[in-house]
Amino acid sequence: MSELVKAMRRGDPQLFPPGFLPVPDPSRNSIGAELDHVRAVNMWQSRTDRVISLIERYWEWSIAPHWNSIRSSLEEETLFRGRTLAVEGPEAMLGELGGRVMWSQPTLTAPYHQDISQSTAGAQLLLVPTVFAGGVRLFVKDGSTMAMSYQARATGHFHVLTGCGRGRKAEDRLALLLGKGRAQVVRALELPRTTTALAETLGFAKSTVSQHLAVLTSAGIVWKQRVGGQVFYRLDHTGLALLRQLGL
C-alpha cells in the first residue's frame, strides 16, 4: 500500500495514465464492479493489474471500515444538490458548490493543477461528490460526458476520523461551554447531517443525539429542515459565530 501512497504523493504520471480512470456510472455501484470495468478497458496497459491490486488493498485497509458512514454522507449530499437543482435551478446549484468553484454564466471555473479549457456545450457535465477532494480536483472526459469531482459538504465524519488533535484547545473550551457530547455534535454539524448520520459518525445512540439536538435547536445554535422523508440539522448563524469566536 505504501507504493500506491508514495506514487500519488510524487504525482507519478504512469500510475494513472490518461484515459485510465473511466467516467463514473451509477450502474457500477460497488468497488468490485468499478475495478472490473477499469481492468476491462485497460487490458493493454502493462501495469493495470498491479495498480488495481494496490487500489483493492487501499480500499480494504482505509475505506471499507468507514464505507457505510461515507456512503451515507454522499447520499445526503446528492439529495441536497438534487433538491437545489429541482427548486432553484442549475445556476443556483452550480453557484454553491464551494471549494473555490465559481459559476458565472456561461463559465464554470474550478481549481486544477494545470490550465485546461473544456467546452460542455451540448455535453453532459457529471458532478462527482467526494469526501477526499479537498483542494484536489479530478477531471475525466469520455465522449460527450465530462466528470468533475468536488468536495461534498456532508462529510463531517471524515473530519472526526482524521481529527488528530487539531484545534484541541478550542474544542476543549467548546466542551466546557456545552458539555463534551453536545460539543461533538456541534463540531459535526458544520455540514448538514441527519440524526442517524450523526449517531453513526460519533458512536452515540440515536436517542442521545436527539436529546442533544433538541437542546441545541432550542438554544438557537442549530436549525433543522425537512427534505423529503429526512430531517437535516445544521449550525445556525449563532452556532457558526460561536465556532469562529473560539477559533474553530
Short description:
This protein has eleven helices and seven strands. With about 250 residues, it is of the alpha+beta class. β1 and β2 form a beta hairpin.
Written overview of the protein:
With 248 residues, the protein is α+β, with helices and mostly antiparallel strands. It has eleven helices and seven strands. The strands form three sheets. It has a three-stranded mixed beta sheet. The radius of gyration is 20 Å and the shape is globular. It starts with a helix and ends with a helix.
Biggest sheet descriptor: 3 strands, mixed
Q: Order of helices and strands, N to C?
A: HHHHHEEEEEHHHHHEEH
Globular, elongated, flat, extended or rod-shaped: what is the shape? Answer: globular
Largest sheet: spatial strand order:
3-5-4
What share of the residues does DSSP label as strand, in percent? 5-15%
Average pLDDT for all residues: 78
How many alpha or pi helices?
A: 11
Terminal CA distance? 33 Å
Helical coverage, percent range: 40-55%
Rg for CA atoms: 20 Å
Let me know the number of strands: 7
Q: Look at the helices and sheets and give the structural class.
A: alpha+beta
| Low-pLDDT windows of residues | 159-167
Write the layout of secondary structure elements.
Elements: H1 2-9, H2 31-41, H3 48-63, H4 67-88, H5 90-95, E1 102-104, E2 107-109, E3 124-130, E4 139-142, E5 145-151, H6 156-161, H7 168-178, H8 180-188, H9 195-202, H10 206-218, E6 222-227, E7 230-235, H11 237-245
Parallel strand pairs: 3-5
Antiparallel strand pairs: 1-2, 4-5, 6-7
